[in-house]
Amino acid sequence: MQFDAELLLLAMAPVFLACIGWEAWHLRRTRPGARLYSWRDTLCNAALALMQQAADKLAWLAIIPVYAVFYDHYRVYTWRAGWLSFAELFVAQDLLYYVFHRCSHRVRWLWAAHVVHHSSERMNFSTAFRQSLMYPVAGMWLFWVPLAVLGFPPKQIVAIVLINLGFQFFVHTQAIGKFGNRAGSKLGWLEYAFNTPSIHRVHHARNDRYIDRNYAGVLVVWDRLFGSYVDEDPREPSVYGIVEPLDTYTPLKVTFHEWASMARDSASVHGARYKLRALFAPPAWAADYHARLRAGSTATLAHATINENNDIAAFSARRRP
């Protein structure tokens, strides 16, 4: 099946903006003291979206030919255009998105791009626009190479990635509760198969119970299958943002703060092993490193003499697999 996802998403732009407008109005009316929207945060999100879209346009020009090489020379199957091939592509890409998303929370190099999306302490539809122009540098595109090897044409790969990301706009909201909570509701089954606002609110939370869970793009079956699913608990409201809060609304600072932090950390430790950790260890390694620095353990950390088991213990205490 042939489709132009870019035109589809362009046509959806008024819908996205209408959803933001409705949500801001609805939340102000129903939760007036919560201040779930702010002009500075929303404008920052919009600027980040524009920057990311411009970078993606340029990146795809370079990446599509790479996919074409794998498709032309290394594909293992040739799919006939139709609904079956679309369904196969949809499921395969959604699984690879889960892998990419989980790796983005476990590998600091990937987190340096993805942290932009998590750095707001608000959760609303405009948060979906909060993206990084550095995803191509971090290597997000590498995760879709297997799709070309499986025999899906490059332009269809780009299209299904965009459709997957477009769907995710609708799970960034606090205006929609958990499906099936109301008596007589028949929508509870959705949360066994699909990503929903309730499931994704957990993903954006930094509570110990919630952090690094629910990586779903469209299908939540991967979280359930691989043990990363956690249900939203009404007794424990989500606290949004990142472990090391970012107190700025400047788009360039939001985009590059973690890259700058990685560079500083890599320069401050001695030894190749610890320099590599500063770049590729789980983000919790950096959070623990910075906490120790603030506590005055500069000498120990600067000479990279942290005990291996202590590193793992510190990581396990802050992040869950």
Automatic annotation (TrEMBL):
Keywords, ordered alphabetically: Lipid metabolism, Membrane, Oxidoreductase, Transmembrane, Transmembrane helix
Molecular function (Gene Ontology), one example: oxidoreductase activity
Superkingdom of the source species: Bacteria
Pfam families: FA_hydroxylase (PF04116)
Key word Oxidoreductase present: yes
Predominant cellular place of this UniProt entry's protein: membrane
Protein topology in the membrane: Multi-pass membrane protein
Subcellular location: Endomembrane system
EC number, as in UniProt: 1.-.-.-
KW Transmembrane (keyword) present: yes
Membrane-spanning residues: 6-25, 46-70, 132-151
InterPro entries recorded: Fatty_acid_hydroxylase, Sterol_desaturase/TMEM195
Domain Fatty acid hydroxylase: 89-228
Group of enzyme by EC: oxidoreductase
PANTHER family referenced in this protein's UniProt entry, alphabetically: ALKYLGLYCEROL MONOOXYGENASE (PTHR21624:SF1), STEROL DESATURASE-RELATED PROTEIN (PTHR21624)
Protein name: Sterol desaturase family protein
